[in-house]
Amino acid sequence: MIRWSFPSRLLTALAVLCLALPAAAVESRQASFAGVGLRVVEVDLAHERLELVWRQAGDAAFGSIEALRQQAAADGRELLFATNAGIYDHAFRPLGLHVEDGQVLRPLNTARGAPGAGNFSIQPNGVFYVDQDGHAGVVTTDAWREAGIAARLATQSGPMLVVDGAVNPAFDAASQSLKWRSGVCAPAPGRVVFAVSEAPLSFHAFARFFRDRLGCADALYLDGTLSRIWTRQDGYAGAPAFMVKPYAGIFAVFATPQAQPGE
């Protein structure tokens, strides 16, 4: 048997290097469901801080993940993960509830549009949030209005994909309306899971993926053919670049600065 011997100074240097490397902040993986590939990103809120951003200095919307990444780099921050948040209007303003750092920047939208007026009009719609204690969840808009949750961040969108373990009854399993889709859920209070399809699929199939594969009792649709996820390790996934339009709210995780030895 061969015995390898390494100088103690080399082992010490390797240990210091490992301590200096940033810990993996997000888990990114591929999945497949109903013949469609999906990108899944999981954020552990016990170790990573999920943020929701909309506007940069001057009140203009960031508009894109790349603009957010560049601004973060200029500020000395490294972007690790980003994806689009909920619904917004033609002026790139959130069309429903938008909470950043505990501040309500846009109010809850309780309007009920006519059937067929858009995804948000499909009932129920809902809210994804992380509260002041770091607990995440997804609830219907009606439940949010009654719950009085003190949110650190929140976005409103629709429709709900899954409610109390049931696929939204408004979805037709035989529907031929196939789109790129993105959504979010919190299978546990300290875990947030985002997913985006890499090819078109139906609402019903997307909802079943969240319930049956991701184990989510409640899940919220974020957006459709403009949706993308970006991670530092894997780059972009989701809709083709030519279909992407400017965003309003963007979810993000940034690298946590690592303490240097002796600090």
Q: Helices and strands: which structural class?
A: alpha+beta
Assess the beta-strand content as a share of residues: 25-35%
Estimated radius of gyration = 20 Å
Counting DSSP H or I runs of 4 or more residues, the number of helices is 4
Average pLDDT, rounded to a whole number, is 89
- First-to-last CA distance: 41 Å
Low-confidence stretches: 10-23
Helix proportion range? 10-25%
- String of helices and strands: HEEEHEEEEEHEEEEEHEEEE
Whole-number count of domains? 1
Largest sheet: 7 strands, antiparallel
Total beta strand runs: 17
Sum up the overall morphology in one term.
Answer: globular
The side-by-side strand order for the widest beta sheet comes to 1-2-13-12-14-10-11
Task: Write up this protein.
- The protein is α+β, with helices and mostly antiparallel strands and 263 residues long.
- It has one domain.
- 16% of the residues lie in helices and 34% in strands.
- It contains four helices and 17 strands.
- The protein has helices at 8-20, 65-74, 141-147, 203-213, and strands spanning 26-33, 36-44, 50-53, 79-84, 98-100, 103-106, 126-131, 136-140, 151-157, 160-163, 166-167, 182-188, 191-197, 219-223, 228-231, 235-238, 250-254.
- The strands form three sheets. A seven-stranded antiparallel beta sheet has the order 1-2-13-12-14-10-11, with helices on one face.
- Strand 10 (160-163) and strand 11 form a beta hairpin.
- The longest helix has 13 residues, at 8-20.
Per-chain topology:
Blueprint: H1 8-20, E1 26-33, E2 36-44, E3 50-53, H2 65-74, E4 79-84, E5 98-100, E6 103-106, E7 126-131, E8 136-140, H3 141-147, E9 151-157, E10 160-163, E11 166-167, E12 182-188, E13 191-197, H4 203-213, E14 219-223, E15 228-231, E16 235-238, E17 250-254
Antiparallel strand pairs: 1-2, 2-13, 3-17, 4-15, 4-17, 5-6, 5-9, 7-8, 7-9, 10-11, 10-14, 12-13, 12-14, 15-16
